[in-house]
Specification:
- With 241 residues, the chain is an alpha+beta fold.
- The chain has three helices and twelve strands.
- The N terminus is likely disordered.
């Protein structure tokens, strides 16, 4: 393989693998009544359907925390988007979400609507209980509903060399910092000084790569052009002599 071709392939893999690489997604309705081990960042959504319409359903998904560096691990769940039916007379009547640490309910009020007072929920790492996410739908009008959350395994410090210590003392994988998701539960993994550099837009990174490749291609071409012009001038001088 030519050096330039290898360079292009290498940069392409790094760019698209790093920026567009996506974490696994767990669907509540698809894994209804089941338990899923969480050893890395996962996304949680209601259904694989783009605009799910879920009626008369009760589903609970259990997430089991696992940290390879500690026997005492928990889960941090951050709701990034929610689109459920709004409250009626202060109550979630049509559909709602509840979050559990084992049997203990973590949300003070049923979760519904489109705006939340509480976005982050954390299970106790010492009890090692499963996190339960319960969907209750009593809606018979087939409204479009949606939910997207990110769930992250953690353990309390001290942290290891391949981990990042959050401001709240939790340890998460160092691969999760500056990924535009609140994996710590306090946003400290997104306030790191390196995030400003890592948050370069895709367009900027592509522009840098194209600029480097253009320089690699153009510099030899310009050198050849100048050499050809120099040879022509010499020929003209020799002909005059």
């Amino acid at each position: 393989m030519e050096p330039n071709t290898f360079l292009v392939c290498f940069l392409t893999v790094c760019l698209f693998g790093g920026i567009f690489g996506e974490s696994p997604t767990v669907y509540i309705t698809k894994q209804c009544g089941k338990s899923v081990n969480i050893s890395e960042q996962n996304f949680v959504e209601l259904s694989p359907a783009t605009r799910p319409r879920i009626t008369n359903t009760t589903c609970r998904l259990n997430l089991a925390p696992f940290s390879p560096n500690s026997n005492e691990s928990g889960l941090v769940l951050t709701i990034e988007h929610i689109g459920l039916s709004s409250k009626t007379s202060g109550a979630c009547l049509n559909n709602r979400i509840n979050i559990y640490d084992g049997t203990e309910k973590l949300n003070k009020q049923d979760i519904c609507g489109r705006y939340l007072d509480q976005h982050t929920f954390v299970t106790n790492s010492t009890t090692h209980h499963m996190m339960g996410i319960e969907l209750i739908s009593r809606d018979y009008q087939q409204r479009d509903i949606s939910l997207k959350a990110v769930v992250t395994p953690y353990h309390n410090g001290p942290c290891f060399s391949n981990e990042f210590q959050c401001a709240n003392g939790r340890c998460i994988s160092v691969n999760l910092i500056c990924n535009k998701h609140d994996n710590c539960g306090d946003h400290s993994d997104e306030l790191n000084k390196l995030c400003g550099l890592l948050y370069l837009s895709v367009a900027a990174i592509v522009g840098i790569i194209l600029g480097v490749l253009a320089a690699i291609i153009c510099i030899p071409c310009l050198f050849i052009v100048f050499c050809c012009k120099g040879n022509r001038r010499r020929r003209v001088v020799y002909q005059r002599i």
